[in-house]
């Protein structure tokens, strides 16, 4: 019997105990393929309608995901070695020992809560979800280092977003002073204590009140969904308010800010009790370009109502200092080469 004939015949029956995983693709099924050691079935529904390159991309991502524990382990070992080398250099007097770190003072919590409403994961593309993850890391960093922190609750925290948070390492699960809740804020708080922040609100906030819970819409949408949060809050019977930006600053673009900038402004307001100072310390210089302080209280909102929101990714360059972020980035994934 020649080789071709043999391949067309039924495979011999192997007793279960003797059965070992097949080593070649040909003798399993014509649809089983091998990509760099990863066996896959072309009939798998997830490949339906996809071209060769798209399938390859999925497989590449799967391989990359599968290698995560190894990569993290490798990075940890590298860091350990580096620390040992550095210790040795200090012991030998080649390097100066680092100055003794001061213990971080205990966190002082404000009596004003903040909620990040993460109920919009179905409205964002993966890049925007990733962007939101970075913004949340920034909020947490700002909150940790602030003289007065706000108790932070992330509501409607769903599986999709949990996956995004996990992608950058699991350290978020150890964050202090942050609660991750599957429930919506309406199930957790009394409606009368809630204020949904929205650039589209007619009401202007003048101070952050004790006992109140302020909600920030956890969404990165490049302003695709204008008025989304305002509408949601109105439907739910929750008060809304916008930051008093127009009363203090004349900005180069529309006054829809990113989640982390709104959060940081609130933290700064708690510290200084001064909106102008808070805005100047948080809003990036390039957004303030061609803008001026308004000392007479004129609200110049109207003239820039139709302009688009600024690029979120650019905003990320403005606050690179957070130690938390650096640690996260170190343990996070270097991108596969062809995605960079
Ligand atoms: C990128 S914005 C979302 C824009 C979205 N289209 C919407 O409907 O609000 C993210 C969140 O930051 C808050 N925010 C942004 N700019 C604000 C402003 N000027 N005043 C109050 N809140 C603001 C809101 O809570 C908003 O939901």
From TrEMBL:
Enzyme class, broadest EC rank: transferase
UniProt keyword annotation of Transmembrane helix present: no
Regions of compositional bias (Basic and acidic residues) in chain numbering: 291-303, 317-340
InterPro entries membership: MT_TRM10-typ (IPR028564), MT_TRM10-typ_sf (IPR038459), TRM10/TRM10A (IPR016653), tRNA_m1G_MeTrfase_euk (IPR007356)
Comp. bias (Low complexity): 15-25
Spans annotated as Disordered: 1-35, 291-340
Entry EC number(s): 2.1.1.221
Catalytic activity: guanosine(9) in tRNA + S-adenosyl-L-methionine = N(1)-methylguanosine(9) in tRNA + S-adenosyl-L-homocysteine + H(+)
Keywords: Methyltransferase, S-adenosyl-L-methionine, Transferase
Feature: compositional bias, Acidic residues: 304-316
Ranges of residues in domain SAM-dependent MTase TRM10-type: 99-290
Protein name, per record: tRNA (guanine(9)-N1)-methyltransferase
Species: Phycomyces blakesleeanus
């Amino acid at each position: 019997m020649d080789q071709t004939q043999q391949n067309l015949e039924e495979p011999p029956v192997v007793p279960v105990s003797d059965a070992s995983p097949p080593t070649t693709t040909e003798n399993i099924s014509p649809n089983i393929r091998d990509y760099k050691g990863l066996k896959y079935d072309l009939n798998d529904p997830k490949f339906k309608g996809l071209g060769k390159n798209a399938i390859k991309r999925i497989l590449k991502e799967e391989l990359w995901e599968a290698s995560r524990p190894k990569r993290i382990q490798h990075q940890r070992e590298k860091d350990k070695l580096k620390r040992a080398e550095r210790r040795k250099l200090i012991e030998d007097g080649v390097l100066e020992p680092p100055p003794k770190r001061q213990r971080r003072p205990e966190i002082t919590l404000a009596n004003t809560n903040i909620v990040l409403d993460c109920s919009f994961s179905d409205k964002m593309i993966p890049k925007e979800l990733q962007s939101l993850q970075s913004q949340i890391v920034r909020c947490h960093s700002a909150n940790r280092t602030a003289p007065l922190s706000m108790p932070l609750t992330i509501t409607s925290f769903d599986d999709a977003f949990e996956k995004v948070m996990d992608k950058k390492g699991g350290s978020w699960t150890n964050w202090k002073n942050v609660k991750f809740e599957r429930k919506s804020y309406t199930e957790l708080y009394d409606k009368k204590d809630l204020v949904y922040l929205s650039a589209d609100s007619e009401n202007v906030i003048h101070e952050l009140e004790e006992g109140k819970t302020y909600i920030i819409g956890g969404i990165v949408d490049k302003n695709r969904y204008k008025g989304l949060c305002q509408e949601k809050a109105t439907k739910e019977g929750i008060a809304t308010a916008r930051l008093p930006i127009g009363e203090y600053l004349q900005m180069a673009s529309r006054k829809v800010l990113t989640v982390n900038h709104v959060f940081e402004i609130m933290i700064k307001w708690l510290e200084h009790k001064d909106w102008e100072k808070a805005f100047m310390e948080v809003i990036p210089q390039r957004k303030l370009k061609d803008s001026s302080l308004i000392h007479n209280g004129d609200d110049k909102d109207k003239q820039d109502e139709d302009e688009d929101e600024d690029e979120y990714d650019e905003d990320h360059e403005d606050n690179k200092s957070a130690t938390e972020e650096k640690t996260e980035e170190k343990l996070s994934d270097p991108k596969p080469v062809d995605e960079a």
